[in-house]
Design a protein that fits this description.
Elements lengths: L6 E2 L9 H10 L18 H18 L5 E6 L2 H13 L5 E6 L2 H12 L3 E7 L21 E4 L1 E2 L4 E2 L11 E4 L14 E7 L10 E6 H4 L12 H6 L9 H17 L3 H20 L5 E2 L10 E5 L3 H13 L2 E2 L10 E4 L6 H18 L1
Parallel strand pairs: 1-13, 3-4, 3-5, 5-8, 8-9
Antiparallel strand pairs: 2-10, 6-7, 9-10, 11-12, 12-14
The protein binds pyridoxal-5'-phosphate (PLP).
Length: 362
Amino acid sequence: MTAQRIHNFNAGPAALPLSVLEKIQASFLNFNGSGMSITEISHRSSYFDAVINDAKDRAKDLLKLDETYNVLFVQGGASLQFAMIPMNFLGNEESADYINTGTWATKAIKEAQIQEKSIRVTASSEDKNFSYIPENIQCSPDARYVHITSNNTIKGTQFADFPDTGKVPLVADMSSDIFSRPLPMEKFGLIYAGAQKNLGPSGTCMVIIRKDFMETANKNLPSMLSYATYAQKNSMYNTPPCFGIYTIGLVLKWIQKTFGTLEEMAAFNRKKAGFLYEVIDRSDFYQATAQKKSRSLMNVTFRLPTEELEKQFVADALKKGLGGLKGHRSVGGCRASIYNAATMESLHALTEFMTSFEKENA
Ligand SMILES: *Cc1c(COP(=O)(O)O)cnc(C)c1O
């Protein structure tokens, strides 16, 4: 018997669609008639070739990518991308722009600086505790790339529109909002996302890279740190995270079957976040921490009148089967992460709980 599942609002690793988990469970001992588990088959087998190609095809289909883009799977999480991007793209005399919108962007900047690469922080929202997304961003026309964090998982802000960078390619950390909405792909040279927020289990990072941009990368790098290696070897230069890639394929298939397009996926996400912000906005008890225009549809961050009440809120919620509502340890407060897989039922359960908690404690 399966124990009761909770409404899971974890920031990451986060909730996966139930149907995907059931599919994994049902086929775990015997993958596609192979007589082996997906965790036991060779990555050099035709079984796994089909798995990785299927996941890539579904990603390309959803984002409407043509042959000018590669989809890669790299280990080391989004955090390794912080280091790999400047390593691959910043040579001597070259510089990149970074937009600092929070903890993860700050870490990306740090990893470039450790390597003594030349970067400019051209916009930042640090002055107001990262509660907003800077507007009217002026990028350097000679920048190699402009790095942004499209959704700020900890502070609960998100780029609603992407900055105009002219001919300079955007490089985006989309760990917490990839496949949550359609994207103007022509703006991007590279997109990366650690899987454990909106894609699958931890252990793999999806990298979508424009081939002409990739061809400009530094060629003298260790194999495992060079995008070209992953592109040339279909992400199988060494043993890839097979189970993670398999699960990502299932999650992308779930988006296709359930929503069809990323436009529909985005409409569902807007609706879910709308319910939650409505409860927050009509109350004096709950205070949203992000400025209205910059609010994330994925991570809804809010505070209660006291830290005491926040503790009680998180504890009472868990008793009602609502988990993961504690804010990131670095900022406190409360956070509901409502990625693609968060169900309408979970949203209703949460808004109901919030309304009754306010009545009892305001
Ligand atoms: C979680 C997260 C990261 C870190 O991801 P890892 O895979 O743990 O390295 C980076 N950026 C954003 C936006 C995140 O949400």
